[in-house]
Amino acid sequence: MSNKKKDIREEQQDQPVKDQIEDAIDEAIDEVEGERENEDSNEDSPEFTEEEKLKEDLQKEKDKFLRLFAEFENYKRRTSKERLELFKTANQEVMAAMLPVLDDFDRALKEIRKSGDKNLVHGVELIHNKFKETLTSKGLEPMDVKEGDDFDSEIHEAITQIPAPKDKLKGKIVDVVERGYKLGERIIRFPKVVTGK
């Protein structure tokens, strides 16, 4: 690829789509005019009639138009895909930032239940449930991991290994220290578990 075309492509990445299309059309017109000048200088050869030349020019223009259209469609598809990824990533960051707050709510609710004040427990449960429902409506799902499940290094994060309290827990999950969460199909926080040996 020549340096001129490379510079033009770098400039095109910084321009809006409309400007890129106009530039591409201008380039195509310049190429056609350059080809016509070359053809005019080669008119010595009587191989082609005027009609054949026009048909050939028309075919070249159609080909250039189709290529330009295909490039534009690819550009649209790529940018829309990038935009979707950006929205997912932004949502993921917000959700990951809210997870420690959800953990604190769970711990606080556990401690408040020990106090025996039913009104206080009921009030905190309402806020806790509303918070969880809001996160769930945005796509957050808790991962279902419990004692006795098989340990899978792809979806679990082992923080320590202890002697198994029962033989059936050897190589399995003994305790879940921190709950894991998924956003859609992507795991945004792996569950932290203790495994038995």
Overall description:
With 197 residues, this protein is of the alpha+beta class. It has two domains: 3-89, no CATH class; 142-197, Nucleotide Exchange Factor Grpe, Chain A, domain 2 (Roll), CATH 2.30.22. Helices cover 62% and strands 14% of the residues. The protein contains four helices and six strands, in the order H-H-H-H-E-E-E-E-E-E. The strands form two sheets. Strands 1-4-5 form a three-stranded antiparallel β-sheet. Strands 2-6-3 form a three-stranded mixed β-sheet, with no helix packed on it. A hairpin with a 2-residue loop joins strand 4 and strand 5. Helix 2 (17-41) packs antiparallel against helix 3 (50-115) and helix 3 (50-115) runs antiparallel to helix 4. It starts with a helix and ends with a strand. 6% of the residues are buried.
Rg estimate, integer Å: 32 Å
The count of domains is 2
Shape: elongated
Number of E-type strands:
6
Most strands sheet: 3 strands, antiparallel
Mean pLDDT: 82
| Residue windows where pLDDT falls under 50 for at least 5 positions | none
User: Could you give the order of the helices and strands?
Assistant: HHHHEEEEEE
* Helix content, binned percent: 55-70%
- Distance, first to last CA: 60 Å
Strand numbers in spatial order across the main sheet = 1-4-5
Percent of residues in β-strands: 5-15%
* Number of distinct helices: 4
Structural class: alpha+beta
